[in-house]
Design goal:
The chain is an alpha/beta fold. It has 12 helices and 12 strands. The protein has a domain at about 1-150 and about 180-205: 3-Layer(aba) Sandwich (Rossmann fold), CATH 3.40.50.720. The chain starts with a strand and ends with a helix. Bound molecules: NADP nicotinamide-adenine-dinucleotide phosphate.
Length: about 300
């Protein structure tokens, strides 16, 4: 199959492209950075350099594709996040409708909460809007992958571990959370892109391991040689102030506060629990070793 992978050599897209190439598919990887061309070709894929925010480029890149992995890249510079998501979603829809028959869309485990009450991260409804735009396309085999909480989010906590000796958010340490590793998302995406019998619209939750934040600090602390590492609970306002001090814009800080609040109440996990998927292969202990291998103690 000819398969186009968006998301460059990102956390999910690199292992996805490698899996597809190993199975003999012809893979094109989209990157916005001309400097990535050589790295993409070195993994064995063709590179298409351009932006998913450019409808003409996207239509050209998808022209010959049998299948597409479509993700909306994070874009902290977009002042109007909902407008950005919807624009990229429309670009995808237009480019897909000229002949692509199978699409795996990277959604979010909060997408099903989009129609509920306020105080939820805005990207839940933004991702939900992209789901609905793609679902309007007739004759498409469409999978919305809804990954849970990325293990790789812990890289954002490196500074807190280094400088404060603890990890913390506005969510209790005893809350059990479904974590996911990008390699398990890549495995699920590869399966959905290449399965022989796909038609219609499918929603697939993806998770790797279910653990509490208290377990995370214990396992990560042991891997770092810091058994004293502990989980600290902040109030919503303390959390917000910390995020603002770290340079996050106000609306994004509100989103992160709302995300951990929804995690803490269990609200975020409700649909995931109903559709509970089989867990993937990468466990917290595996991630802790990866994290420790790149952690800079000073
Ligand atoms: N964090 C979580 O817990 C969580 C949970 C559920 C879902 N998600 C979703 O997961 C996604 C992130 O996936 P990931 O970690 O695999 O991505 P990633 O590692 O951040 O990679 C995305 C890549 O896309 C490329 N890119 C950026 N802007 C672009 C543009 N305008 N046009 C074309 N390419 C562009 C960039 O590479 P180049 O510089 O090479 O272009 C970037 O490295 C997010 O969209 C998020 O919504 C996250």
């Amino acid at each position: 199959m000819k398969i186009v992978v968006t998301g460059s050599l990102g956390n999910i897209s690199e292992p996805l492209a490698i899996r597809l190439l190993e199975k003999g598919h012809a893979v094109t990887v989209i990157s916005s950075d001309p400097g990535r061309q050589t790295a993409i070709e070195l993994v064995g894929a063709a590179a298409a350099i351009g932006s998913v925010d450019d409808p003409e480029f996207l239509a050209g890149a998808f022209a010959e594709a049998d299948a597409v992995y479509a993700m909306v890249p994070p874009n902290g510079r977009a002042a109007d996040q909902p407008a950005y998501y919807r624009r990229v979603g429309r670009n995808y829809a237009r480019a897909i409708q000229h002949g692509v028959r199978r699409v795996v869309h990277l959604s979010n485990w909060g997408a099903s909460l989009a129609l509920q009450a306020s105080n939820l991260p805005s990207n839940f409804s933004d991702t939900h809007a992209v789901e609905e735009l793609l679902a309007e396309l007739p004759g498409l085999a469409l999978t919305h992958l809804r990954p849970t909480f990325f293990f790789t989010n812990y890289y954002w906590f490196s500074g807190m571990i280094r400088e404060a000796g603890f990890l913390g958010t506005n969510c209790s340490g005893s809350r059990r959370v479904p974590f996911v590793h990008p390699r398990d998302i890549a495995a699920a995406a590869a399966q959905e892109l290449t399965a022989a019998d796909k038609c219609g619209r499918t929603v697939r939750y993806v998770a790797s391991d279910e653990r509490s934040f208290d377990e995370v600090v214990r396992v990560v602390g042991a891997a770092l040689g810091r058994p004293d590492l502990r989980w600290v609970i902040f109030s919503d306002e303390q959390m917000r102030q910390r995020l603002l001090q770290s340079g996050l814009p106000g609306t994004m800080a509100d989103d992160v506060v709302n995300l951990y609040r929804a995690l803490g109440t269990g609200r975020l996990g409700e649909e995931y629990q109903r559709q509970h998927p089989a867990l993937g292969e990468v466990k917290l202990e595996d991630f802790a070793q990866e994290f420790a291998a790149t952690f800079q103690p000073i």
